Amino acid sequence: MLFVVTKPPYKSENPKLAITHAMACYVADMYIDEEVEPIVAFVGDGVLNCLKNQRSMEFYGIISTEQHIKNQLASDMRMLVCEEDLQKLGIKQEQLIDAKNMGADVDLNVVDFAQVLKEMERCDQVMWF
Prior knowledge:
By secondary structure, the protein is α/β, with parallel strands linked by helices. It is built from 5 helices and 5 strands, in the order βαβααβαβαβ. It has helices at residues 14-29, 56-60, 65-74, 83-88, 113-122, and strands spanning 2-5, 39-42, 78-82, 109-111, 126-128. β1, α1 and β2 (39-42) form a beta-alpha-beta unit. α1 (14-29) packs parallel to α3 (65-74). The longest helix is centred in the first third of the chain and has 16 residues, at 14-29. The protein is globular, with a radius of gyration of 14 Å. The protein starts with a strand and ends with a strand.
């Protein structure tokens, strides 16, 4: 199941919902006979969700999208970030979230849009957020 995040981390709950739904796939996998592999892909303005040092708890008293992403990475979820959109917005890889301090074995996977399209074709279900 591929969750495609196209919205920025502000003015909408869509990015957090996508990440939360993806995590719920792990729980659902325990109760159904089929294996469910959730993948989250950030494209367009959605790549802005992947910037580190978000301060939503400080300013708004809510958990940041950054923390949601770190939790997923610590759970070894595959998370793709569109390289072309990072370049378009002038975002460098060192500005992206990592969860090594939480014991994560995986990082955000920066890929070209062609790879995101391959995942769309491979997955049985694609959800847009």
